[in-house]
Design a protein that fits this description.
Layout (H helix, E strand, L loop, with lengths): L2 H15 L4 H19 L9 H10 L6 H14 L2 H12 L6 H17 L2 H18 L4 H12 L9 H20 L10 H26 L16 H20 L5 H18 L5 H34 L2 H11 L4 H15 L5 H18 L4 H17 L5 H10 L5 H24 L7
Helix pairs in contact: 1-2, 2-13, 3-13, 4-12, 4-13, 5-6, 6-7, 6-8, 6-10, 7-8, 7-18, 8-18, 8-19, 9-10, 9-16, 9-17, 10-17, 10-19, 11-12, 13-16, 15-16, 15-17, 17-19
């Protein structure tokens, strides 16, 4: 019977590689395969009754309500021009500092990552804003493209990240399932706030690594800024979004607000910042609302498709297949962990983090958690691995996003060469988190 779930996985992967939409592929292939299973006799038709329940559960999930609110917050800051103003003013502030432009891009990229939480949006925004300036100031094409792509992926790990919100929801269910399988019926759960706290130190480690590398490589680069006014608008430009991020994260960490409530504060705060910046109009807010709804619809369509996939996979004995695979892995728990992390890294070339969170993680997380691994630590490892896979040639998603806005004067191989040092930095951060799990609680 192990061949039945294996054929199912191969069919889904083949359909995705053919370019069919992820949400419809997951749901459509799953339902068709289940119908064949009902006819042949390896799938219970009564399980179809659970599909409406699962969809309603997604719609009624209070944690997932934070997703559209965080998306609205990020899209507002991006489309209102606030992000461009942040980069401009930060560049002026670091005008006399060696490698000042590179430093300013990393700092602004970190703030954008914390405010948008969407890798694609951050890479495209940073590519359009900063890549021409970097090249004009004499930075090499390799370094410039690598820096932009790398800072764009920070949205994967810097809280409040959409990826961490989704991972928190999935890991909470996986942890409860693992506890039940072990016969432990405790009330202990994993929250999105736990993941936000756990991601702070790893995210800062990666940012510091980027800064050190940028300063070492471009020690002689001085930003050429033509301005007679030394009193820049840095504080006025950076203070509102920085305060907004501080309030959102601070309220979650302090336990004052849930992630969903904090996301509501973030959405309202971004609206107010954009309004008072005098860079908005009715048409702009229509565009922001449409873009936010579009991204949210895409995410929740994938969640519904992944939920149907999970139901069918378990209904055809997929759990037994996963258990057998883990049982056949050589070595102890850490060997299994490293193999799984490498597998997630490879899958990250094909699937986006949303599909991985709701298709792959529910399958591999319970067995790993039953081996005794901490759920927050495991979630952060998965987030860093996905961030690295998004940056790794030749199929990294961030590279595709950047390729679309880089222009014809930049070759693809220059982008590939540029990201290598930043990949090494991320791998060092990953190794530190694996070797020293206690840094997550500092």
């Amino acid at each position: 019977m192990e061949i039945i779930p294996l054929i199912f996985i191969l069919l889904v992967c083949a359909s995705l590689l053919m370019g069919f939409p992820v949400a419809f592929t997951l749901a459509g292939i799953s339902v068709l395969y289940a119908l064949i299973g009902v006819i042949i006799g390896f799938f219970d038709a009564n399980l179809f009754k659970n599909i409406p329940i699962r969809i309603y559960g997604i719609m009624n999930n209070q944690t997932l309500l934070a997703v559209p609110l965080f998306i609205y917050m990020g899209v507002t800051l991006e489309k209102s021009g606030i992000a461009a103003s942040m980069l401009s003013e930060m560049g002026k502030a670091f005008a006399k500092v060696k490698s000042g432009l590179g430093i300013s891009i990393i700092l602004v990229g970190t703030l954008l990552a914390a405010s948008t939480g969407i890798v694609g949006a951050t890479v495209v925004t940073m590519g359009l804003m900063s890549l021409p300036i970097l090249l004009k100031q004499g930075y090499s094409k390799e370094f410039s493209t690598g820096l932009v792509a790398a800072t764009g992926t920070l949205g994967q790990i810097i809280p409040p990240s959409i990826a961490l919100v989704l991972l928190g929801d999935v890991m909470s269910n996986a942890y409860q399932r693992a506890q039940n399988n072990l016969g432990i019926f405790s009330q202990k759960t994993v929250s999105v706030g736990d993941l936000f706290i756990g991601a702070i130190i790893p995210g800062l480690l990666i940012c510091v690594g980027y800064l050190i590398y940028t300063i070492l490589v471009n020690r002689k680069k001085i930003l050429k800024v033509e301005t007679n006014n030394q009193n820049t608008n840095l504080i006025r430009t950076l203070f509102p979004p920085f305060l907004l991020i501080f309030v959102v994260l601070g309220s979650i960490i302090a336990g004052v607000a849930t992630p969903t409530e904090a996301a509501g504060i973030g959405a309202l705060g971004s609206f107010m910042i954009a309004t008072f910046s005098n860079k908005t109009s009715i048409n702009l807010f229509k565009d922001i609302s449409f873009q936010s709804a579009k991204i949210t619809t895409m995410i929740f369509a994938i969640l519904i498709g992944a939920s149907i996939f999970s139901l069918v996979f378990r209904g055809i004995g997929g759990d037994d297949l996963i258990d057998q695979i883990f049982g056949a892995l050589p070595g102890g728990p850490y060997t299994a962990l490293l193999i799984i992390l490498f597998g997630i890294f490879i899958i990250g070339f094909i699937l986006d983090f949303i599909e991985i969170c709701y298709v792959i993680v529910p399958l591999i997380a319970p067995p790993l958690l039953m081996m005794g691994f901490d759920p927050v630590w495991l979630s952060i490892l998965l987030a860093v691995v996905l961030q690295t896979s998004f940056l790794t040639p030749p199929f990294g998603f961030s590279l595709f996003y950047l390729r679309g806005v880089a222009g014809d004067n930049i070759q693809t191989k220059e982008i590939y060469k540029g990201v290598v040092p930043f990949i090494v930095i991320q791998l060092v951060a990953l190794a530190l988190v694996i070797l020293f799990p206690w840094i997550l609680i500092l």
